[in-house]
Queue: 3 jobs
Job 1
Amino acid sequence: MQAVGTHPHPNTMLTPARPRTQHQRVLHTAVLRAEMLRVSLMTTIYHDQRLDLVDGFTEDYAPLSLFARTPVTWDGITYNSAAAAVAASRFVLPATRKLLQRTVTPVEAWRKGSHLAAWGDNAHELHLPERVDQVQEVPYWREHRQFQAMKAVLEARFAAPALRELLLSTGDALLVARDEHHELDWGCCSCPSHATTPGGNRYGRYLMSLRAALRPSQPRGWVRVACIGHSPEKLPAGSADWVREELHRVAARLTREYRMQVAISGGARGSDLWWAQAAHAQGAAVWMYQPHTRQSARWDEADQAEHQHVTALADRVTALPGTYNAGCMAARSRWMVRDADLVVAVLDSRIFSGASYEAVQTARLDRPVILIDPHTGQASRLNPQPR
């Protein structure tokens, strides 16, 4: 494990709570390995040397990976990894599950599970050394039983004291399951084809949920809070000052009473930049998630100056690669929601469309939302509404 006070590997950065270290601008460009053609995925500027972030389970944190070779017993069978156990949970017949048990690597088990499911009853056509007489998928596995299986497998896996202590050692850090296996639901893929598609990181979120359950004495709260909202021209006339004041009030209460440590901002004009400044004033770290690398290039001089000011005070500034495109705004919003424990939404209650509205509806599936409505001049908390 990294000793406190040492400079960790860029992909496994953990920070203590405030006070922050002295601001020092450090440029880090995340690139794929040589076999991935050295394609740059995203540029991140760290103003602090340490972050509450584990971006990919490598080095000391490699055992936390879904694909780590750590045996786990689930439903009476011992598999070489959590990936193999969850892949096996898709199938009814013991013969099919044992096929995945014998698979050489965790990645192969995960892929072979997907391959068998895709072929379904045409198992006789499979070009595999092992033969399976029939492939029968567990009913409703894709809809919800895979999620139940993952939770059960993780609980069994992290019953091992060494793994449990490793998970707990990450504190409140954001855990991102980043790899190159093209898994965009459970993880985040770093291959060139998926560079502009932030994955769902469901595995990372499950780990953080399990981590919280393993320390029940931890005070309740939301460590990372994102703000999504309208641009200034979409706000009702005369409401901008009220929105600014409300964001300051919300940031103060979340920091004081609910353990907010990180404010996530999309770097857009209006609510995004106001939220970053409000949270920074309360001592929270600011993470900026930009939709492309030239976000403020066409803004007027005053807006550019505000953007530069927030960029300078932010602890982490990360941008999706490339320039503006039709989907980059929505991708950025999904990225922000993915990494947030709670979302602050500055939305006019009369508007039912747009990237901000859609992102907030997605957020409400599994996390609370604080709605700041500039039309009614009211703020309210909305509880999750799962489908």
Note: Confidence is low (pLDDT under 50) at residues 1-43, 120-130.
Job 2
Amino acid sequence: MNPILNDYEHSITDKMAKFANLPDFPRLEDYDLTRADLDDYLFDKQAILDSEGSEKSRYVTTGILIILPIIVIAAFPPSMLPGRELFVFVGIAIGLVLSAFVYFARKAIVKMKLRRLYDDKIERYITAVLEYK
């Protein structure tokens, strides 16, 4: 059984396919667009949105970044560490800061790429399609 894709690109193209024959549905020609322009734009935008990776890969990355400082700290004998056993919590805190940094860096990169891709004509058409009925 094929899973139903519920992403940005398919939500727009499915709505276009469903309502394209209705007379009051937004037409590409009214926005001075071609179907190829729209398909290319939607493909590129979906690729940018997907570039963060799956939910599973984000969780794995976050887990590794939280555990990594603890592994590094474990390489040193406890006598060399200030606070000895409590230093594990410092390692967890460092891991949380690292994972937060990576999270916000990914978000910033996606936002920057979307800003670079932005096309006002196509976005107005997409808005009209999404707001239809």
Note: The CA atoms of residues 109 and 115 lie 10 Å apart.
Job 3
Amino acid sequence: MPRHASLLDAANCPPPRVAVRWAIPLLALQLFLVTFAVNLQAPLVPHYAAASGSGTGAQALAFACYVGALVPTLLFLAGLSDRVGRRLPLAIALLLGLAGTWLTLRWPTLVGLGGARACYGVATGLVAGSGTAFMTELFGDRDDAATRGAALVAAATSLGFGAGALFTGICLVVAPSTLPPLSLWVYPPLAFVAALAVAALPAPARHPNMPWLRWPVLAPGTVPLGVAILLAWAAVGVVIGVVPAALAAHGHAAWAGFATFFVISTGLLFNRPRDAWRRCVPCASVWCSCRSASSCWLWG
């Protein structure tokens, strides 16, 4: 057999099971840290607004920088991980989380928050699809590889989105006079170590001929579910954008992190519904999200 053929086979063969055993929790932890940064500053929004002398409109604009960076990344860089490998986008995402947190440490204003949210949007876009694909590849040839991979990624990222705000909220409750809180100082070294640890993950085969631009594809019968997810996340965005200011107006700004965690991460309780309940989850999620958003509007 030619030498180049044997090298090609070695590059495309699945990683050893021993390596995969620790690679799966490591990847889950790294995806958790990428999303952990997204809402890390959520309880601090009133402080940033006061430092900037801005109102709720500027706060909403700073939060919207996340989506403004996320959507173009999903559209134009969806094929990046296929062309360059799964590990490089993951490492870049972790470093972007570090950079975004540093921005709010250096400039604790809404301008710094807007820049941080843009970094987090790009980071999330880089791992949104590639993280699930990477996890599925690590599970190998199992019949339920795709299901297990998607469930584990959903759990890690959902916990990450809420846990960052929760950690900051705990820091503010324990030491309300310490600004910036400990959470913002702890995250950068963790993200840096996690970015270095990406090199220890197995490297799946690359596909350099895959296109950069990929339009969203909805499988038959998934449009109602997609609309439900869209509405639910839109309502969640409204809630986590309004809650910090509403709580601060009543002297409870430190508890915004707890509220953000419960709004986002408790969805894990319904992550694996069964039978007829599975068809009710999209409607129930939209109903609960809209009730939460309306409650914030009435009480805020």
Note: The radius of gyration is 20 Å.
